Amino acid sequence: MSKQNKTHRGPTITVSHTPAAQEEATGLKAFIAGAAIAAVVGFSALSLSQAPYSTAPSGTASNADAQIAQGVGNGELKTATATKSNDTTKQTAAAGSTAQDNPTFSLVKAAYGKSLPPNLIKQGQNLFEENCQVCHQADAIGKPGVAPSLINDELLSISSDKFLLGTIRDGREDTGMPPFAHLGRSKAKAIVAFLRSHQTLPDRSAKVDAEPDAHGDPRLGRQWYDNICSTCHGIGGNGYEAGGTGTAIGLPGFLNKVSDGFLRETIKSGRSNTRMLGFQGPTAMANLTNQEIDDIIVYLRTLAK
Ligand code: HEC
Ligand code: HEC
């Protein structure tokens, strides 16, 4: 990354998103077709949930397809289905979008909302509307290719205040997320209270951050990353820059602020109401084993060095 590249792209966000959308559609088409090919030729590593992309046309094989089929089928990658663990499936369900079906969680929501002073939430909302809404959209629901959702449960339940406040203060270098150090800590805290007022799952950030570090093979992780994740997050993980809808998960501005547990849980469960669908459990884009997910994390860590 060159020196003069180290700037924050300010709130010039009147860009057309057609290229990003097109890019991703093409990538996903390639991915889905690739996985289908892999399955047909007997490599059942990826069990795809087609539902969210049911409108994707079933494309003919392209170079990308061939590459994916090769990546999946070259014998170095184990099949995901064989070692799928029931435990993690359960965990994922608990943390994932099925939570709405569970009455326990709606009680938590009420309790959670009450524990935050309404005037603080209101102050945070005003500050959010002034400073953040232009990119993160009304109610912080996010917009593909512009800024991520800040209110989905998967993000909020694993994000510590330290992570949220630090990200607001420092922004993310080389991405569209500017630093807001000038707001000061108390205003930033009010914004976090506003975001948390949307939270329906208990805060488990301390537990997630205390998870063991990932151990694995970065070369295998890279293959998974390049074949699956790069479609949205870009080769090398520089995010929207690369034309996709995923954030810059290969840059230090993100990686230096999150634990391996945060990465692991996000990859497993995804983020509801976004294109990040998670890679374990019933709503998964594809099923990856715990080891394969750790391989990906170990690879991501090499990018920020
Ligand atoms: C000019 C557009 C823009 C503005 C204004 C902006 N953001 Fe962001 N924000 C982004 C982008 C783009 C990202 C994702 C960066 C990346 O690719 O990693 C992001 C990421 C984040 C994240 C990390 C979310 C995650 O999924 O890990 C948080 C938290 C956040 N922003 C909070 C805020 C808050 C709070 C404000 C207002 C004080 C704000 N942002 C203002 C563009 C913006
Ligand atoms: C279909 C597109 C897509 C694919 C494929 C995809 N992601 Fe994502 N990912 C996203 C989006 C979109 C977000 C941010 C959610 C939002 O916009 O609110 C995200 C968020 C993330 C985050 C959190 C980043 C942050 O800023 O907090 C991580 C970590 C992540 N993805 C890892 C992965 C990995 C690893 C893979 C491959 C195994 C992958 N993703 C595949 C779209 C995708």
Write the layout of secondary structure elements.
Layout: H1 18-40, H2 63-73, H3 86-95, H4 103-114, H5 118-131, H6 133-136, H7 153-158, H8 161-170, H9 185-196, H10 205-209, H11 218-233, H12 252-255, H13 260-269, H14 290-303
The structure holds heme C (HEC) (2 copies).
What does this protein look like?
By secondary structure, the protein is mostly helical. Among the domains are: 28-75, no CATH class; 102-203, Cytochrome c-like domain (Cytochrome Bc1 Complex, Chain D, domain 2). The chain contains 14 helices and no strands. It has helices at 18-40, 63-73, 86-95, 103-114, 118-131, 133-136, 153-158, 161-170, 185-196, 205-209, 218-233, 252-255, 260-269, 290-303. The longest helix has 23 residues, at 18-40. The chain is globular and about 50 Å long. Mean pLDDT is 74; it is low at 1-7, 9-23 and 25-111. Residues 11, 13, 131-132, 134-136, 147-148, 150, 155, 164, 167-168, 172, 175-178, 180, 191, 239-240, 247-248, 254 line the site of one heme C. Residues 142, 148-149, 224, 228-229, 231-233, 245-247, 249, 254, 263, 266-267, 271, 274-276, 279, 296 line the site of one heme C.
Short description:
This protein is mainly alpha-helical. The protein is 50% helix and 0% strand.
